[in-house]
Amino acid sequence: RLTVIDLAGSERVKKSGVEGAQFREATAINRSLLALGNVVSALAAKKAHVPMRDSKLTRILDGSIGGNCRTVLLVCASPAAENAQESLSTFEFA
């Protein structure tokens, strides 16, 4: 089984200035990334409960994270100095 998902990156709403439907999409992306981070943290800590049902993203990835599988995360980061904090945050997440 191969699952490929484009996480679209975290959305800095203040920085991008998005509104309306784009704001709601950015908010949903951030919630999904937070839920994914919670799942990865729970798996790494070998917790009894892993919150796989907290978002649509983690439900889709249910059979692809943890257990008897291999998971790879590809990260794209900007080398520009003005994006240094976002790039660092991306690497910490990965």
Strands, helices and their partners?
Elements: H1 13-16, H2 20-44, H3 56-60, H4 84-93
Describe the structure in your own words:
By secondary structure, the protein is an all-alpha fold. Helices cover 47% and strands 0% of the residues. The protein has four helices and no strands. It has helices at 13-16, 20-44, 56-60, 84-93.
Taking all Cα atoms into account, the compactness measure Rg is: 15 Å
Percent of residues in helices comes to: 40-55%
> What is the number of beta strands?
0
β content, as a range? under 5%
Q: What are the segments in which pLDDT stays under 50 over at least 5 consecutive residues?
A: none
What can be said about the biggest beta sheet? none
* Count of DSSP-assigned helices: 4
By secondary-structure content and strand pairing, the structural class works out as mainly alpha
Separation of termini? Answer: 22 Å
On the 0 to 100 scale, the average pLDDT is 86
What coarse outline follows from CA principal-axis ratios? globular
Helix/strand order: HHHH
Q: Main traits of this protein?
A:
globular; 94 residues; mainly alpha
What's the gist of this structure?
Helix content is 47%, strand content 0%.
